[in-house]
Input
Amino acid sequence: MSKVKVGINGYGTIGKRVAAAVNRQDDMEIVGVTKTRPTFEARSAVDRGFGIYVPEGSLQSFKDAGVPVKGTVRDLYGVADIIVDCTPGDVGEKYKAEYEAAGIKAIFQGGEEHSLTGISFNSTANYSESWGAQFSRVVSCNTTGLLRTLSPIDRNIKIKNVYATLVRRAADPGDSKGGPINGLEPTVKLPTHHGPDVKSIMPWLNINTMAIKASTTLMHLHTVVAELERESSTEEILNIMRTSPRVRLINSRSGLKGTAEIMELGRDLGRDRSDMYEIAVWEDGVKVIGSMLYYYQAIHQESDVVPENVDCIRSMCKLEEDASASVSKTDRFLGIN
Ligand SMILES: NC(=O)c1ccc[n+]([C@@H]2O[C@H](COP(=O)([O-])OP(=O)(O)OC[C@H]3O[C@@H](n4cnc5c(N)ncnc54)[C@H](OP(=O)(O)O)[C@@H]3O)[C@@H](O)[C@H]2O)c1
Output
């Protein structure tokens, strides 16, 4: 069977990771990535063997900088079966008409609204809803984190209400423009958009969220309080989490006290870019009292959505009907176990 041909529009934090993850699979391959400027990232894409496609207006600047180009962004539509749009939030929306006109499939990211596609994607919660779709949207890093842990708990023990507080990283490590660099900034418009975003996939879930931006770049940290339909126990919840895909139980007694140590573990695991694809949940920080569940989880914002993009390609391109088979395959090639 020939491999599905994937183009990446927007080779930044998410795009470069999705490109590397796709090329590790045996049923899909990268046929090109787009860049608008001939930066160091454009050169490193060339070094990795990716063909570069640029907007018509950028051709001259790439020529002047001596960065080889394969064609224009429109040329990429001609050689790809599917585009993974990893452009900055709200930019993807502007490309949708082009993808439609070219008759190709496209995946958007969490910076776009759910209404752009009408379908949002998470491997654990709703893999089959994107089956054969022309457009879908992989939800944001925070929403992915919430869905990875809440959806298996809801499937096993119904959840009545969720209250989550998200301590968000102020910027990605490679970004020198974000902030605050010293301080904490609450999002005062409540509830924050994260709860409704979870509901784009689990519409029945009663969830409200608050968020605080913190001066760190490593990870987001969530505190989650869930009211369950019935009484449960800490052990029952831990057993569910142990078998939930892409959830890694960690223990503070082993030295994993915070996000710094989790990312050090990521470096020790030796994966691409030291990424931590799984949602890290503190095993010794999970507590059930009656029907109330409390836990903490940490999200590596640069990478948790990467395996979901690979699974979303499989669902949209009808490569694998069974969600858990796709998840296992993606994970095997990414070194997630
Ligand atoms: N970073 C995260 O934590 C994170 C996590 C989950 C989801 N997301 C979502 O993923 C999407 C991408 O975010 P990101 O963090 O990867 O952004 P990013 O690091 O800023 O990368 C976006 C890339 O798109 C390129 N670009 C800008 N304007 C473009 C245009 N008009 N056409 C084509 N390419 C263009 C830029 O490169 P050039 O200008 O050099 O071409 C840039 O490198 C957003 O929807 C975001 O909300 C981000």
